Amino acid sequence: MLRELIDFLVDTDKSIFSFINQQMHAFWLNDIMSLLRNQNVWIPLYIFLLYKVYKARPGILVPFVLASVLTFAITDYISASVIKPWVGRLRPCYDAEVSKTMHLLIDCGGKYGFPSSHAANHFGLAQVWFSIILFLFNKKWYWVWPWAIIICYAQIYVGKHFPFDMVAGALLGILAGLIVSRLFMFCYKQTDGSFKIFIRK
């Protein structure tokens, strides 16, 4: 029963991948999707985000950056160094069945792809940013979710990952983002927003 369920999920995953990577393939989209998955493309967005935080609360900028870096470090390490070698699921380009017909627009990369580090990292950042901004300013940065989804979709489109790689990465990222944002809120409340936790009274 369990084997049948796993086979069903794998087959479904491959079918969704083929639909996105092959049937949704369009020549004019190739360069766009390749750019969207490149982290360097989003640097102006990161700079603008930091500027907005600094303008609203200058003293929060460093803790905000530290929370973001911590989230990224957690998701990247767990996804790439713990789960991928443990699960050992091949990327589409290494899958004997899928690789024959897929469109691979970039370098294949490492052998294993579950979960996606891209998905984990970006959904982790999306969650920690959404939670912290909501906590500090009572504003809902809904835009972080389509941003993360677009990057994940691009990863499937270019042939880097199966859809379920992205789903697993997204769940890992959201969990890490929730944990780090709760830690941020705890430190904020304990220090009345100063984050001077090492100063003795």
Give the arrangement of secondary structure elements.
Layout: H1 2-23, H2 27-36, H3 43-56, H4 61-87, H5 117-137, H6 144-157, H7 163-190
Helix pairs in contact: 2-6, 4-5, 4-7, 5-6, 5-7
Outline the structure in words:
This protein is an all-alpha fold and 201 residues long. It has one domain (15-190). 68% of the residues lie in helices and 0% in strands. It has 7 helices and no strands. The protein has helices at residues 2-23, 27-36, 43-56, 61-87, 117-137, 144-157, 163-190. The longest helix has 28 residues, at 163-190. The mean pLDDT is 93.
Summarize the structure.
This protein is an all-alpha fold and 201 residues long.
Strand content: under 5%
- By helix and strand content, what is the structural category? mainly alpha
Helix-residue proportion: 55-70%
Helix-strand pattern, N to C? HHHHHHH
Number of helices: 7
**Mind telling me the C-alpha Rg?**
19 Å
Low-confidence parts lasting 5 or more residues at pLDDT below 50? none
Give the distance, in angstroms, between the N- and C-terminal Cα atoms: 61 Å
Give keywords.
201 residues; single chain
